[in-house]
Amino acid sequence: MSANRPRLAVRALILDGDRLLLVNAYPGGQSDLWCAPGGGVEAGSSLPENLIREVWEETGLSVEVGAPCLVNEFHDPVRGFHQVEVFFRCTIATGQVTDGWRDPEGVVTERRFFSRDDVAAIRVKPDSLAQAVWGQGIVYDALELIVT
To answer: Which residues of the chain have pLDDT under 70?
Structure first.
């Protein structure tokens, strides 16, 4: 990917009651950082189509994609990496989170629901995640440094 072209990604905010589904996308548990399921957008498919595919791969869940609620940008100025993520509110159509599911890409190693208090006690990105999940309207989180 060219250093001067941002990568576009989509992410799902999925609540079960008041608990948010997060994934650890670091093979072998290399990091304690959690994020919403999702990933890179492939040309020729809509943002919701891409998100449905990514959520299935990472969680084994089929989702219905709702309204966007967060636009987040992050970058690594040293590597020249810049990603723009669009987060959508989603609901589970079918499936359930189980320990037996394996991400075919081998990226997501854990998937788990977290309460609002739990989210406040763990490392998550973006910084505005809780505001987007439990707040109103749409949030824009400007260019923040990537964290590993």
So the answer is: 1-3, 27-29, 148
In our burial notation (b when 16+ CB lie closer than 10 A, e otherwise), range 78-115 reads: eeeebbebbbbbbebeeeebeeebebeeeebbebeebe
Residue 61 CB contacts under 8 Å (≥ 6 apart), including other chains: 14, 55, 92, 93, 94, 95, 96, 97
10 Å Cβ neighbour count for 44? 7
Contacts 24+ apart (CB under 8 A), 130-137: 132/13, 132/69, 132/70, 132/87, 133/13, 133/15, 133/20, 137/69
CA distance 146 to 15: 25
By DSSP bridging, strand 62-76 and strand 38-40 are unpaired
- pTM here is 0.91
Q: Return the pLDDT at 28.
A: 66
Q: What percent of the chain has pLDDT over 90?
A: 67
Tally helices (H) and strands (E) across the chain.
Answer: 3, 9
